[in-house]
């Protein structure tokens, strides 16, 4: 059990908002100056998470914009083929372009991403694209932080969150800090904090929370302090991720969970956060406690970092259970009152 209340009689489980993009992952290992071919996958952190929960069996939708070009059509077709409702994905006519993420795999543990986001179409979705009738159809919405980086996307996100709260739709906030999209870290901290105050579940790395708290509590690096700060607002569950060291989840009722980790030899390091979020959200929406949900997230992350792609590699629930079984069955996760 967990402390989230998902409304019944909703035909969608999760609506994700914001970035629909394209990943172009290098096929050769080494510096991108020397690689020559790339594999194309659906990309964009909220899109990856939406794919993840859909592949796990949740009914999902998306609010966002795509470019009126081949990449836009690729994205729409991918959502359609994945069974994701795309009725609220708008084809933008402004000439804005699909965000591209080129990924460099110098070694399995030394990877970096190069983002082309000039005039990115995902930041063009606006308040008119956010329909109250659509939001009220869903048990939860997912906000990915980069959507706060510029207007009109920024205002659209705040409008969606207000409509979600009005209809008791749970709000998940995956911080997903991507520096190249923002003017300054101070601006980021302000908008992320304003949003975090309104969300039910906040997921981020230690570094992302450090950035988020840089104005209000610049010296804090303590996870327990961070978690308790947001329970003073609307948060019910907080998750703080620490890479392959694992993660911690906290509940407003004072429980702290130490997440399982499934060590693997990675193909590439990125994609862990989106796959972890997908498994975690799925677990909470099944009614599991945060520890069990974290286990699904961690297993999903290990599977995805062992793969070349992010979206394509998102596992179904059977694959996750088979994977966990390799590690001598259910991983125990530590839980204690703090
Ligand atoms: N190399 C790894 N091996 C096994 N599990 C991992 C690895 N990296 C991450 N994980 C799992 O995935 C979770 C999320 O990863 P991380 O903390 O790196 O988030 P992130 O920085 O948002 O990910 P990303 O690199 O995709 O942006 C971790 O808490 C851990 O459970
Ligand atoms: O969020 C992005 O635009 C990049 C992702 O699509 C990419 O798969 C990644 O970096 C996941 O962590």
TrEMBL record:
Its EC number is 2.7.1.92. InterPro entries: Carboh/pur_kinase_PfkB_CS, DKG_kinase_firmi, Myo_inos_IolC, Myo_inos_IolC-like_sf, PfkB_Carbo_kinase, PfkB_dom, Ribokinase-like. SUPFAM superfamilies: Ribokinase-like. Residues 14-316 form the Carbohydrate kinase PfkB domain. Gene3D superfamilies: 3.40.1190.20, putative 5-dehydro-2- deoxygluconokinase. Keywords: ATP-binding, Kinase, Nucleotide-binding, Transferase. Pfam families: PfkB. Pathway: Polyol metabolism; myo-inositol degradation into acetyl-CoA; acetyl-CoA from myo-inositol: step 5/7. GO terms for molecular function: 5-dehydro-2-deoxygluconokinase activity; ATP binding. CDD domains: KdgK. GO terms for biological process: inositol catabolic process. It catalyses: 5-dehydro-2-deoxy-D-gluconate + ATP = 6-phospho-5-dehydro-2-deoxy-D-gluconate + ADP + H(+). It is an enzyme of class 2 (transferase). Belongs to the carbohydrate kinase PfkB family. Catalyzes the phosphorylation of 5-dehydro-2-deoxy-D-gluconate (2-deoxy-5-keto-D-gluconate or DKG) to 6-phospho-5-dehydro-2-deoxy-D-gluconate (DKGP). This is 5-dehydro-2-deoxygluconokinase.
């Amino acid at each position: 059990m967990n402390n989230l209340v998902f409304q019944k009689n909703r035909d969608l489980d999760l609506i994700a908002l914001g970035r629909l993009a394209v990943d172009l992952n290098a096929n050769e290992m080494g510096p991108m100056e020397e690689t020559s071919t790339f594999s194309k996958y659906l990309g964009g952190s909220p899109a990856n998470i939406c794919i993840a929960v859909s592949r796990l069996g949740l009914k999902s939708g998306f609010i966002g914009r795509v470019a009126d070009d081949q990449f836009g059509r690729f994205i729409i077709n991918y959502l359609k083929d994945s069974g994701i409702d795309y009725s609220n994905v708008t084809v933008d006519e402004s000439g804005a372009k699909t965000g591209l993420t080129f990924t460099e795999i110098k070694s399995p543990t030394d990877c970096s991403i190069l983002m082309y986001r000039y005039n990115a179409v995902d930041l063009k979705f606006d308040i008119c694209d956010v329909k109250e009738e659509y939001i009220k159809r869903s048990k939860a919405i997912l906000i990915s932080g980069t959507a706060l980086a510029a207007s009109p996307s920024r205002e659209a996100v705040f409008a969606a969150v207000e409509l979600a709260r009005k209809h008791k739709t749970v709000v998940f906030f995956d911080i997903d800090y991507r520096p190249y999209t923002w003017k300054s870290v101070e601006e980021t901290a302000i908008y992320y904090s304003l949003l975090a105050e309104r969300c039910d579940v906040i997921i981020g790395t230690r570094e992302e929370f450090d950035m988020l708290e840089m104005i209000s509590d610049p010296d804090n690096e303590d996870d327990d302090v961070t978690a308790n700060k947001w329970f003073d607002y609307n948060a019910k569950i907080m998750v703080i991720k620490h890479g392959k060291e694992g993660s911690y989840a906290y509940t407003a009722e004072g429980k702290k969970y130490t997440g399982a980790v499934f060590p693997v030899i990675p193909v590439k390091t990125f994609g862990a956060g989106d796959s972890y979020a997908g498994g975690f959200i799925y677990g909470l929406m099944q009614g599991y406690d945060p520890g069990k949900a974290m286990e699904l997230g961690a297993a999903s992350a290990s599977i995805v970092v062992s793969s070349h792609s992010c979206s394509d590699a998102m596992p179904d629930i059977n694959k996750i259970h088979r994977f966990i079984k390799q590690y001598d069955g259910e991983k125990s996760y530590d839980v204690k009152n703090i």
